[in-house]
Each structure stands twice: as structure tokens, then as C-alpha cells.
Amino acid sequence: MPTPAALRCSLIEDHGFIGNTATGALVRRDGTINWLCLPRFDSPAVFAALLGTDEHGFWRIGPTVDDAAPPADRRRYRGDTVILEQEWVVSGGSVRVTDFMPSGSQPAQVVRIVEGLKGTVAMTSLFRPRPGYGADNPLVTRIEHNGTSRLCATVHPDSYWLDGTYHTVTEHGARADFTVTAGESVTFSLTWCPSFNRAPDMRSPRAALTRTAGFWLEWASRCTYQGPYREAVLRSALALKSLCHPGGGIVAAPTTSLPEDIGGERNWDYRYTWLRDAALTITTLARLGYTEEAEAWRDWLLGTLGRDADRLQIMYGLGGERDLAERELDHLPGYENSRPVRVGNGAAGQLQLDVPGEVADALLAAENAGLHSSRDADAMLCALARWTEERWSEPDEGIWEVRGPRRHFVHSKVMAWAAIDRTITLLRRRPSTSTDELANWVELREAIHADVCTKGYDPERNTFTQYYGGRELDASLLLIPQVGFLPPDDKRVIGTIEAIQRELSTEDGFVLRYPTHDETGSNVDGLSGHEGAFLACSFWLADDLAMIGRVQEARELFDKLLALRNDLGLLAEEWDPRAKRQLGNFPQAFSHVALADTAMRLTNCGAHLPGQRDRGPVGVLASARP
Question: Which pLDDT score, from 0 to 100, does residue 106 have?
Fold first, then answer.
């Protein structure tokens, strides 16, 4: 069975992801689940070996071995689902393990089905739950009831029920050794419930598999994009849907503290609902034809924000919680010794002026996709616009959540402009909107626009800058033409695109967010170390190149970015151009949003893959300034 070193030595992209939209798990190639939070994405992990060793919790099912567990020979998702299949070919035969989380499952559950494909294979299930992010050693007991035998691991207030073939309780958890022959199958399920509740009902894993496959296949069939990049777009859409909680909140990623700099401190908890990231997710899903998620998110927004924009935060818990106090888990050594491991996120208290702009753009995109209008949503939109009116001229921490001094970030001002612009667009559709009210918003929009063009642009270098009065560049400036702030053929836009491509690109052509160090070598964002190329920014560059007519170059960059996905089509947040590996939390909504958006843009401008053709209409691109 696996040694501690074997459990730790895996790349971020070596993992697959399964989920039920309320939470999710990472599954390694060797059949190890080494990250799982129950019952929500932001609950404490019961398996946390991803951020430590086997002592911090895992569950492996795979061929019986004496040393390091072998990786699967093949793996894939079952069609257009998030049901993961991994297959091993060993001396005695071959075997498949199917992992999934039943859709709509209450309480939360993980199901694992072992199927013999050829010959006879000896298998082992090694179960080591460690709730509390690997800190707690639960009481594991056997429960005999009505002729069945179940294991229950308990640390109040949670319990974890393991059903399946007979496990022997060990000092560290439980173990089962069994064989499977061709045509046979063995099923396992792990079910969470509050420890003070009665035992959860035993359910049929096979029936859950059929139901879950049907759920995902039906959802995928409603994707309106039929262009040449459909496989990549649909896999990204499935990843995004997996991060959309049934209550309407959307997490940025299902993990915490996967590093942006291996061995460094750039490790953050992404298991919360950023208004920006959620809005971008909804905008993309709406363009792909999905409005149910948009409605659920809008209802979540109304319940979380109401009309009280004065208390606006940039992120919330999945249930709308405001207290996301950041703390460090000292007992976890971190992924590849990247410390600290953090839970909570101190950025929740930052000022980020761009947020109302992304929210307003998402509301507009959802309505353009067919979501009915809402008076309450209009009132919330106007409250956010008034908040923007009062604060847009202040310095902030910006889109990248720097932990250095506040500045007048150009992207923040551009998105403040977008917040007012989208508000005007939506209010013009409402017969009750007064002419005077619209005139006031138009005047404000023009004032912000003039301010940015005057203070955020360097005429000597023909480029916009990261912040007013600065000289540094920032990849978020690539969004200036995409949100309609200026047209793509404006010389200032072209100059900015070319400056970013020249000064912020790696040798491979991927894009850094911003220089992490200034000319003196000091860290400009308040953090030590460096980071990789930011994948969303690299997709933005492909977008901009297409918008200024360099379509072939855009397509080539997009193809290179697609090649960075793992074999399951998944992306983390960043790419390490030196080590050639993925970095950051995984899978990352921001990256998959940008992938789908770029694919739609390239399809709209006729940039097709070789040997393929457009098979139908695609989603609508972002609204532009009227």
C-alpha cells in the first residue's frame, strides 16, 4: 500500500475532480481521494493528504501492491459528465474504478464502483478519515443492523458512514482486501451526516450512478455552443457547473492553499463566493444557454446583499456568511512544503471597485440570455451603481487583491465605468426609468471615462498603466476593449496590447498578471516570491489579438493554452513556465471561464481548428458600450 511519499509526490494536474455541485473531491491517478470537504466546499476536509501526508487523511481503492501505488493506465470522464473512470492493467487482469458523487445527494455521498474487466485482480481499499483538515483521529466503529455491517467514523459534530465490502478496523482507519473477476463488481459508498442524527439510509450505488449520469448528460445537452471547440468548452462548462452550489453561491475553486509559487507563501483559500468570479461564471454560462444557474445566483445575491450596498464585501461564504477570518493550519506542511496552509480569506475585507461592474455585466448577460427581469434585482443594481458613484474615485486593492498599499488601479476604474454603463443599458429597457435619472448616470459614466483616459494612460509609451501615475503594466488592462471601454482599433488599446505582450509574456507567450517586483527588486504586492503565468490573462491576450485582427496569432496562442489542460480537460489557476506544470487551486473557475469565452470569440470571428467547421450558432459576446 502507498507510502507517505507516494501519496504526496503528484502534480496538481495529476488529479481528477468529482462533485455534486455542493462539494467535490480530488482523485489521484493511483485511485487515492486526497481532498474532500463534507458536506460543503468550505467545510473542513475529511481527507487532506493533498496538503500533507497520508497521516492527514485519504481513501485509496486500487490494485493490491506492496510499495508505491501504481497510477491508472487509463482515465477519462464518462461522456459529458463528471463521473471519473480509471483503469489498471496488471499481471492478473484489468480493473476499472468509477468514482462520482450522486447528484442532488442529501446527505453528501461519494460512491466508488470496482468492476473486473479481464482475469482476476487483487484489490485493496485503504480508508483513513481525518476530519478537521487532517487534525482529528475519529472513533471508527462497526455497526451491525438488520443483517448489514457498516463502519462509522465519528468526530462530533460529524459522522462518516462507509458501506461496501467488509473492512477490518485498524489503528489508523480501516482496510479491505478483495478480488474482482471479469464481469463482477464491488461497490462502496461514503456518506456524511451530522453525528447526532440517525444513521443515513443505505442507497443503491448502481441506481445513483444511473441517476447521476442522466443529470449531467441532460445538463450538457442544453449547451448552445456548437462550434469547433465544443469538447473544450463543454468540459469547462461542466467544471463551472460543478462549482455552482444549489443555494446559488459559486466557489472560485474547490481547494485551498495549492500554491502559486511552489514552496512559497502565495497560498489562498478559494472555497468561497467571490462576487467577481461568480459573476464571470454566470456571464459565461448564460452565453452558453444556461439561465437556471443565473437565476439561482441572482436570488442568492438578493438574499446576501439586498439593497444594503454600504456593507458590500468582495466575497462571502456559500450561505452568504460574511465572517471569513483567515487563519493558518500549522499542523499541515502544505503541498510540496508550501506554507502556510490557509483557511478563510483576509481579502474579504478589501475594497475592490471593479466588483459592481462584473455583477452588472452578469445581470445584463443573463437577461440577454432570456432570464426574466426583476424589480428587486433592478433595485440592487441601482444600489450598487450608487455605491460606485460614491467610491469610484478612491484607491483600492484591485482585482488581484494585493496586500500592499491601495492604489488607483486602472482596471478598477474601467470596471466602475462598466458598472454604470450596464446600469444605463438595463434601465433604458424599463419604461419607468426617468430621463433625469438616466442623464445623471450618463454624466457619471463620461466623467469616469475621461478620468481614466487622462490619468491612467501614458502617452509617451502609448499604453495604459497598472495604476494612475505608475509605469508598470497589468494584464487586467487587456479587458479594456472586451468590456467596451474603448474600441479595439483605438491606438491606445493596440499600444496596450502590444506592450503587455512584449513586457508581461513568458518565452512561451503566456501572460503574467503584473511584475511581482519593481525595478529595485522589492515586492510590489506585499508578498514574497514570484508566481506563474496567469491562465485567464493568457486567454485574454488571445481575445484581444483576435479583436485587433491578428486572428491566426490568437488561434495559435489558444491552441497552446488548450494543450496545458490535463488529460481530463481541467486547468488550475496558473502555469509554471519553468517547471512546465500547473500551479494554484484546482480546478479553477476563472481559467475555465476565460477558456470558454475565448473559444466563443474565436468561433465568432471564424478561427476554426484545422479540418473542422462551425456546426451552428454560438453564444453572444460581452455587451459593448452603446
Answer: 76
Contacts of 89-93 spanning 24+ positions with Cβ under 8 A: 90/63, 90/121, 92/119, 92/120, 92/121, 92/122, 93/117, 93/118, 93/119, 93/120, 93/121, 93/181, 93/182
Do 175 and 242 lie in a common domain? no
Q: Does 277 reside within a domain?
A: yes
Domain-ending residue, one of 149, 182, 197: 197
Helices 355-368 and 375-391 cross at an angle (nearest 10°) of 150
Beta partners for residue 58, in sequence order:
128
Instruction: Give the residue numbers spanning the domain of 291.
Output: 235-604
Is 314 in the same domain as 184? no
Residues 351, 466, single domain; the answer is yes
| Interval 313-333: pLDDT, tens | 999 999 999 999 999 999 999
Q: pLDDT digits over 79-111, tens only? A: 999 999 999 999 999 999 999 999 976 789 999
Q: What's the domain count of the chain?
A: 2
User: Which residues pair with residue 407 across a beta bridge?
Assistant: 396
Distance in angstroms (rounded) separating the CA atoms of residues 491 and 478? 14
Residue 38, C-beta contacts closer than 8 angstroms, at least 6 positions apart: 23, 46, 108, 158, 160, 192
Give dist(CA 327, CA 344) in Å, integer.
6
Q: List the CATH number of the domain containing 327.
A: 1.50.10.10
Residue 207 lies in a domain: no
Distance, in Å, from the CA atom of 308 to the CA atom of 265, rounded to the nearest integer, reads: 35
SS3 call for 34: strand
Return the pLDDT at 606: 58
| Three cell numbers written together for 214 | 442522466
Q: List, as one string, the DSSP characters of 88-122.
A: EEETTEEEEEEEE--TT-SS-EEEEEEEEEEEEEE
Contact of 326 with 292, CB cutoff 8 Å:
no
**Does residue 181 sit in the same domain as residue 311?**
no
- 250 with 325: CB under 8 angstroms? no
* Measured distance CA(385)–CA(437) in Å, rounded: 12
- By DSSP bridging, strand 139-145 and strand 148-155 are antiparallel
Asked whether residue 615 is assigned to any structural domain, the reply reads no
Domain endpoint, select from 149, 178, 197:
197
Counting beta carbons within 10 angstroms of the beta carbon of residue 610, is it exposed (0 to 12), middle (13 to 18) or buried (19 or more)?
Answer: exposed
The burial class, CB within 10 Å (0-12 / 13-18 / 19+), for 542 is: buried
Average pLDDT, the chain: 92
What's the pLDDT band for 148 if we cut at 50, 70, 90?
confident
What is the C-alpha radius of gyration for the chain, rounded to an integer number of angstroms? 25
Q: Which of 364, 503, 368 is nearest to 420 (CA)?
A: 364
Closest by CA position to 362, among listed 240, 451, 185, 195: 240
Q: Give pLDDT tens digits for 336-369.
A: 999 999 999 999 999 999 999 999 999 999 999 9
| Residues 392 and 294 reside in one and the same domain | yes
The answer to the question of residue 593 being in a domain is yes
Q: How far apart are CA 142 and CA 167, in angstroms?
A: 9
Whole-structure pTM value: 0.93
Q: How far apart are CA 147 and CA 168, in angstroms?
A: 17
At 12, which CATH number?
2.70.98.10
**Cβ-contact 564, 534 below 8 angstroms:** no
SS3 301: helix
